[in-house]
Amino acid sequence: MLDPVKVQRFWESRAEAEGRVAFESIANLEQDTTNLQRKICDETEKVFGWLPSLEGLRVLDLGAGVGQWTFRFAERGAARIVGVEYAAGLARIGREEAQRRHMDNVEFVVSSAEAFETDEAFDLVFISGLFVYLNDDQAERLLARLPSLVRPGGMLMLRDGTGIGVRHEINDRYSEHLGTQYSATYRTRDQYVDALQACGLHCSRDENMFPEGHPLNKYPETRLRLYQFRKLQG
Fold first, then answer.
1. Where are the domains of the chain?
2. Which CATH number fits domain 4-231: 3.40.50.2300, 3.40.50.150, 3.30.750.80, 1.25.40.10?
3. For residue range 87-139, what is the model confidence (pLDDT) as tens digits?
4. By CB count within 10 A, which of 75, 144, 181, 224 is most buried?
5. In whole angstroms, what is the distance from residue 26 CA to residue 69 CA?
6. Rounded to whole angstroms, how far apart are CA atoms 91 and 94?
7. How far is CA 213 from the centre of its chain?
8. What is the DSSP letter of 90?
9. In sequence order, what are the residues at sequence separation of 6 or more whose Cβ sits closer than 8 angstroms to the Cβ of residue 96?
């Protein structure tokens, strides 16, 4: 099982990359310039192709990093965006970026996603690259919180690494790409869908982020996958 202390230490250390890598690279871990731009363009097109207009909506970004998706929601008219990030250094970078962009409707909260508490329910809850870094106990705590965070009729969108056929775990292994120890758990598509539907969130659509043969499908055991869930009225 993943050690949450080591995983958090990894994400805290990513703030030290500020100024050495592109803003988007700090939290999405793609450091090749060409791949980074392709990833941003292809993912942004797909995610917003699945979403309705965000004009005037309230958005919760769980596992926000430095706000790479938070700011895209703000640019597309969301009225309020709350980014929840447990690595204080990443949240600091996000806050400073929000100030630089004069985005007063963006708020960053330092908290783990599973411990985040609010009385507010959101039109869209966006979870990006988060479950893959949670052990099973943390994931269960987050799943218990999710229904109260989505308003009736609202949407939850999950963008996360997914094991192909079977769950795939990397536990404190050295990554040549990142130059440091790395841990992640890639649950299967069915495990994600079953867990979220058990919370009362209906899966309306899901597919791999990139088509087969895409250069960003780098590893044979996993795929980045996009899931759309709805919370039914009543």
1. 4-231
2. 3.40.50.150
3. 999 999 999 999 999 999 999 999 999 999 999 999 999 999 999 999 999 99
4. 224
5. 13
6. 5
7. 24
8. H
9. none
